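To: structure desk
From: M.T.
Subject: fold request, one chain
Message: Could you run this one when you get a chance? Sequence is below, nothing fancy, just the single chain.
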Amino acid sequence: MKDTALIVVDMLYDFIDGSMACHEADKAVENSLQFIRKEHPSPILFVRDHHPADHCSFTAQGGPWPPHCVQGTHGADIHEALVPYADEDLSFFKGEDPAQEQYSAFEGRNPAGQSLSEVLHLLEIDKVIICGIATEFCVRNTAEDLLKDGFRVSILQDCIAYVDAQGHKEALQAMQEEGIALR
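Reply: Done. Structure tokens follow.
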């Protein structure tokens, strides 16, 4: 699996048990850990929502979401069981601009200012496997952008969580029709 990377999308406390807790989030974390321990994927890249307190997506600013993943809060932290697998250089922060909503990991940057696409190409990655939260938003947008960028993309179905069951089902179906593998 030298040409394969695992991308962990937004397995952050606010999406697991916080202000935007998603369905099946605990199960997604546990199943992702089992996959990591069994498959030993390398590299593992983490995508993190990382909002300023006045982000445009928050209801107080007219957005659709309650405050979540605010910089410097517990809600923005990676689940503690996954922290040992997270490398700061392979962590991509999105949603830091208070005036812009960002669902796709392609819009985030690592501490060196590199995009996910840049780093994957530097690592000579051809295939990506995705786990994370939430299917209908950040997982889907990230998967579609990876596909458009020429990567072979698969999603671990038992390692994702979602906002709405119907939206989850529709997103999985749409992604599969686009050529994203479900496993």
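Reply (cont.): The mean pLDDT is 96. Let me know if you need anything else for the meeting.
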